[in-house]
Amino acid sequence: MRSIFSLLHRWAGLTIAGFLFVSGATGAIISWDHELDDLLNRHLTHTDSRGEPNASLQLARAIEARDPRVRVTHLPLTAEPGKALAFGVQPRVDTTTSRLFEPGYNQVFVDPVTGAVLGQREWGAPWPVTRENLVSFLYVLHYSLHIPEMWGIDRWGLWLLGGVAILWTLDCFVGFYLTLPMRRPPSPNRPPAVARQLTRGWWSRWKPAWKIKTTGSAYRINLDIHRAFGLWAWIMLFVLAFTAFSLNLYRDVFFPLMSAVSEVTPTPFDKLTPANRHSPITPKVGYEQIIDRARHEAKSRGWSEPAGSAFYAPAFGIYGVRFFHPGDDHGAAGVGPAILYYDGQDGRYLGDRVPWNGTAADIFLQAQFPVHSGRILGLPGRILVSIIGFLTATLSVTGVVIWWRKRGARAWRRAARPIAGTASLAPR
After folding, report:
1. What is the sign of the dihedral through the CA atoms of 192, 197, 198 and 200?
2. pTM
3. Helices 287-301 and 56-66: angle between axes, nearest 10 degrees
4. What pLDDT does residue 384 have?
5. Cα 28 to Cα 66: distance, rounded to the nearest angstrom
6. Residue burial 366-385, b: 16+ Cβ < 10 Å; e: rest
7. Which residues pair with 72 in a beta bridge?
């Protein structure tokens, strides 16, 4: 059994090592995506203007008037002093070609006080990589490798890394099993020292697997690092592997599976099939009406948080309004803000997402991204995830080194056998 598990661990590890190196390293970096973006692009994210900010709805209308090719799909509603407002936009359909326009940007940064456009960029653009889109490039690389749309499908990267996450999740258990001490039957021919070693307590025999012997050879140190780091971080590695699977394959596998085994309350997005990218659903109700309805609903529920942002999902024809205090839209502890959903055609209420409310399965689903990103624990969680990201990249490298050294040793033994056989047939 152990030899079978060793073979599975070897080939599963080799299959996913490159992917885990990229995802681990990028994950460690994007744990600080907003901080790094602010550091690199202060000309976009910060402003020196002081005074009464303009209404976000007014600024959104100005963006659409300036470029009729785009529609504002993310609308920040609260301005922080010294911070720009980042509006998300998506292209409209060009009626002459029935395809989406290509404006070359999907974010617009606006000074909330003066209304001046500070800049615009293509968040997540695969090329060229510039200072302005570096962080978002790494973000998209982390979960989809920037694999482009093919045959009208733009989910190839999600599916590929989702499959990698499944292998990683299963391999966590295989690798853990291989660290356990072997059980060998008694043998009268076994040397006394070996016999005494095998009769020691189970923990005494497993304890060395948790340590790194720095006085050994380079290969032995590499092996100890791979095994010990994997053991000490095993729970977090498993959590990251599982949540990577649940996030990448949410619509395809995870949500249907959860619905089959537990009581899950579907969101409006879970009930609908997204429209073709080049056939987005045009809303008949505007932001102003939706936001007014959401604020009234939140007040009737006794929510203390203000409406912090609103969005429109063209693929589903759904509006959402998020409720949070300024500055809490990212990086705060918990499972994210409360959201109210409305139909883009008639403005009717469709449902909500209330943190920590619902069935056990609902809360489990809410926690997937906050757990994966570490944001569920706030700053300490993000530090932990960043460390584990670099550790994942390290384990990928050490695993390949172990395989390469063993491969070389096996090749040397195979080459030595014919020589030994020839020597045994030599005349005496």
Report:
1. positive
2. 0.89
3. 160
4. 96
5. 38
6. bbbbbbbbbbbbeeebbeeb
7. 89
333 backbone dihedrals φ, ψ, rounded to 5°: -70, 160
The answer to whether the peptide bond before residue 53 is cis (omega within 30 degrees of 0) is no
Res. 290 pLDDT band, cuts 50 70 90? very high
Which residue, among 283, 327, 346, has the nearest Cα to 73 in the 3D structure?
283
The string of pLDDT tens digits covering residues 186-227 is 556 656 665 555 556 778 889 888 998 888 888 889 999 999
Could you give the CA distance from residue 92 to residue 316 in angstroms, rounded to a whole number?
15
Q: What are phi and psi of 27, to 5 degrees?
A: -65, -40
Bridge partners of residue 99, in order along the sequence:
94
- Tens digit of each residue's pLDDT (9 = 90 or more) over 99-116: 999 999 999 999 999 999
Angle between helices 218-232 and 156-179 (to 10 degrees): 110
What span, in angstroms and rounded, lies between the C-alpha atoms of 235 and 229? 11
Contacts 24+ apart (CB under 8 A), 373-381: 373/31, 374/31, 375/330, 375/331, 375/332, 375/333, 375/334, 376/333, 376/334, 376/335, 377/333, 378/331, 378/332, 378/333, 379/331, 381/333
Strand ranges in 243-348 using DSSP code E only, listed in sequence order: 307-313, 318-323, 338-343
Q: Determine contact, residues 382/331, Cβ cutoff 8 Å.
A: yes
CA distance 239 to 229: 15
**C-alpha distances in angstroms, 120 versus 109, 116, 124?**
6, 12, 13
Assess contact for 281 and 315: CB atoms under 8 A.
yes
SS3 for 413? Answer: helix
| pLDDT (tens digit per residue) in 345-381 | 999 999 999 999 999 999 999 999 999 999 999 999 9
Tally of CA atoms within 13 A in the half-sphere of 150 that contains its CB: 6
Report how far residue 349's alpha carbon sits from residue 300's, in angstroms, rounded to the nearest whole number. Answer: 14
- CB under 8 Å to 60, separation ≥6 — which residues? 72, 75, 87, 287
Could you give the 3-state DSSP secondary structure of residue 320? strand
Radius of gyration of the chain (CA): 27
Q: Where are the domains of the chain?
A: 42-130
d(CA 332, CA 334): 7
